[in-house]
């Protein structure tokens, strides 16, 4: 805002008024159902678009006279969240079906942006096919369900067997502690120059990817409930685990085991890793998600790389000192939801049913390298053999932890991202960054904190 | 009031009727201004005193001055204020303004083709949309970008300013982009300086620098004031350029107030707080403007 803002505001207001009135017509069209979803920032990756188009055609055929309008939003995750929140605030712009990250869903439920789906789910036979944990993915604190999950995901270490061979490391690598991970990275740095030894997402640019794939994979290996204490219903401050996790990040970037710091902090790092660093065999170890394979599929994947299934190995990420169960993974995922201000909730639900029918759910799991949440899909041979490594990542579900399903979580996550960025950019020591986080946390959650030194 | 009524109403009535008539063509504009200009600004001021959020909250409530108190206690906000001042002084006062004057002065002495070419190049930078300029300069300054390619070719050490000194990189970018405006203003101003005055000073034996200091600068004082004011206000509000180049990072080393405001309002969903910061930015702009206005008023 600035003193020339009046003019800008005026123009913006006029443009907005024009757009809104223009949208008014289509918003009230009773035969069109609008679906908003995130589109990959790499334009060549069209896995999700293709799948939704396929379902939309099916839906239009099964419901003559009805139309599905796709609203792909091409943006980084953070920008996507902001965009759909703004769209959902007004009935003129609200889509009828929206793709919600479980990371954000509780926050959006609290804000009254979403519609409870219990009345529909109660009449839907297929719901019994969903795994129990999946059913709770979109269950709010009020006990009602606000979304139908389309898959889940787990996290682990991906490593390049060719680079490992050059460094004299085993192809069945299985680190037992953080130190072993770092030691391996140091070996690669020594023996295979020119290769980035280890990528751990960090900072604000990568958004929730840094917080979940990077920080929380570390933090949840330091003890029980390191972030939020469900017994006390309070957020944890001052924990050693938090400082140790930041120290791990600090070590990776200070010893130059990770990507160049300016690249690591760039918002494009995720695309960079999947589209360039891994396929070009410039990165040895990547702490990343189970879905990575979808980027290299022959169609819609953007960067076809058929050799990945033999080149890349997977290993579970270890706990800090190897304490049982010895493996750490976090599970997340996305759901299909209906905004409170949708004009066509019934039609929207029908589309969700189509999206998550057994046939389409299977299709999505195979195309999107998703971990199935429907038991009947998980039992299908086509799913079990779909993507190499799917068995490995499905096996991690049993040790997977979930992020605190609370409205305040996105804000807490953003504070964690800032702490990571400060440490990575070498603006703060891990101790200092952890203290700043504690301070910020107190004001973010209105003092509902408990010290666990 | 109809024409017949106006004619019978006597002289006073007639002037009032005339006033109404004269105003009536402006009526639509006035209504639109009130609706779309005063309306949103009023709404902004209101939001700044609430705890409105984009998500994660059932309903917003009035919180008085809490957002403003939070801002002054917020290290991130204070950092943004300092960076905004550094950015404004570096790129607007020192960069655009001085460089614009120098270019305008040099171009008066240059030959016609040089003048035309320089003018075209400088103005192109000004015409390019902000976001395009942002991406251009990002690819120029980036670690694997044009500047380093050139430096490497010249066997000079590479730089990574977007990471090590981001505020300097974005300041350069803003100078590159905004100098044309100052140049145009000063070109106009310099052509208004009467030739006789300069010549008589020359006859009296005043050198180039003394002529600039004692003749030219005092005579174009008002243009300097206007230019400084417009440049500063423009620079205070630069967002797209910084967002495209650094996103305010790394850390928050290039997070000026507009970027901080966007981050709070749309990344952290704190619309209320972000709007309060926007109002504070307005205050910073007003402070600068009032200083310049005073300078303009003073007689030499």
Automatic annotation (TrEMBL), chain A:
Lineage: superkingdom: Bacteria
User: What residues form the membrane-spanning segments?
Assistant: none
UniProt keyword annotation of tRNA processing present: no
InterPro entries associated with the record: Bact_solute-bd_prot1 (IPR050490), SBP (IPR006059)
Q: Name one Pfam family in it.
A: SBP_bac_1
| Signal peptide range | 1-22
Q: Which UniProt keywords apply?
A: Signal
Identify this protein by name: Extracellular solute-binding protein
Automatic annotation (TrEMBL), chain B:
Its principal location? membrane
List the taxonomic lineage.
Bacteria, Bacillati, Actinomycetota, Actinomycetes, Kitasatosporales
InterPro entries, per the entry? MetI-like, MetI-like_sf
Report the Gene3D superfamilies cross-referenced here.
Answer: MetI-like
Where are the bilayer-spanning segments?
Answer: 26-49, 80-104, 116-138, 158-176, 228-246, 270-293
- Record membrane topology: Multi-pass membrane protein
Keywords tagged on the record:
Cell membrane, Membrane, Transmembrane, Transmembrane helix, Transport
Q: Where in the cell is it found?
A: Cell membrane
Q: Which GO terms describe its cellular component?
A: plasma membrane
Could you identify this protein by its name? Sugar ABC transporter permease
- Residues in domain ABC transmembrane type-1? 82-292
Family per record:
Belongs to the binding-protein-dependent transport system permease family.
Q: Name one Pfam family in it.
A: BPD_transp_1
Q: Which PANTHER family match?
A: BLR7065 PROTEIN, SPERMIDINE_PUTRESCINE TRANSPORT SYSTEM PERMEASE PROTEIN
Which GO biological process annotations does it have? transmembrane transport
